[in-house]
Amino acid sequence: MKTKGALLRENNTPWVIEEIEIGDPKAHEVKIRMEAAGMCHSDHHLVTGGIPMAGFPILGGHEGAGVIEQVGEGVTDFEVGDHVVLSFIPSCGKCPSCKSGLANLCDFGAMLLQGEAVSDNTFRIHTAAGENVYPMTLLGTFAPYMVVHEASVVKIDKDIPFEVAALCGCGVPTGYGSSVRSGDVRPGEDVAIVGVGGVGTAALQGAVISGARNVFAIDPVPWKREQALKFGATAAFASVEEAAMKIAEVTYGHMCHKVIVTVGEVHGKDVDTWMGITAKAGTCVLTGMGNMLDSEVTLNLAMLTLLQKNLQGSIFGGANPKLDIPLLLSMYRAGKLNIEDMITRQYRLEQINEGYQDMLDGRNIRGVIRYTEEDW
């Protein structure tokens, strides 16, 4: 079928809306009519080259929700009309990682940036000129339709607003899980959240729900600091340096049991700064993405050893997509998790560059692309 999509044809250029053609679902695949797509910072890493796909053009978008329109052979868990969230981490349920409880490290993840469908290693999306299109993390939610493997699809209740559901494909479980799973925040602990965009705001809520005593939000944007206080932060600061003295005062010099780093782009030179506000035997969780070519890190190795600190990487917040996405949405329905207020603005697909500029300017916690009948 012919539709449209936001494509990136080379690094450091704007997204362009072009006609694309999407094939029918093959074995273990489904076709989805998209309703909403979240605008995550990770897609901006495609623009800068921080996340290198296997080729161009790239169809962006890895956060989204929609309705199943067609199912391929062998699909038994889904049917036409189901409402679903697209998980940027697929979960096959069969590989060693999935079987050991590490579904966020599913072996299908090795193919996230290759562009070829995991079903048969062919391209499911092409431009009007017949070029192969590389969808972000096997998805490509910046298009009104998509065909994806069932491992990337999670069924949800039909009363969940699509714009809310879309954020649970990446930002909400990644942030919430960074605190609750990867960070294992315990009641009474002191926690710092560095960067309070979409992922950081979810991490902040995770820390609050886990019973953290103090939650220190750190972000250079004044408006985001104001929002962090509304979401439950006990104090907000413009920088780690500004926060350090107050954290030391409040914690009697012990610093933070957990530091969750959810900045838009991680730089190796900043790692030791974050470790500096991490307590003895504490954990610093790196959730924000750095450039894949960046291998230089500033870290005081002696203090890492002598103070027995932990530096923990986190993908998808250590979550199990098939389990945790419905659980988080059930918390939203019960009024325990505020996802709705994380959505700052909604855009049309044609406004994608405006939306990402708003993100870079610090005007959004999360922008969402909303599809309508004009797009389908």
TrEMBL record:
Its EC number is 1.1.1.1. It comes from the Bacteria. Pfam families: ADH_N (PF08240), ADH_zinc_N (PF00107). Keywords: Metal-binding, NAD, Oxidoreductase, Zinc. SUPFAM superfamilies: GroES-like (SSF50129), NAD(P)-binding Rossmann-fold domains (SSF51735). The keyword Methyltransferase does not apply. Residues 27-157 form the Alcohol dehydrogenase-like N-terminal domain. Residues 198-318 form the Alcohol dehydrogenase-like C-terminal domain. It catalyses: a secondary alcohol + NAD(+) = a ketone + NADH + H(+); a primary alcohol + NAD(+) = an aldehyde + NADH + H(+). InterPro entries: ADH-like_C, ADH-like_N, ADH_Zn_actinomycetes, ADH_Zn_CS, GroES-like_sf, NAD(P)-bd_dom_sf. The keyword Glycosyltransferase does not apply. Its cofactor is Zn(2+). One of its GO terms (molecular function) is alcohol dehydrogenase (NAD+) activity. Belongs to the zinc-containing alcohol dehydrogenase family. NCBIfam families: Rxyl_3153. This is alcohol dehydrogenase. The lineage of its organism: Bacteria, Bacillati, Actinomycetota, Actinomycetes, Mycobacteriales.
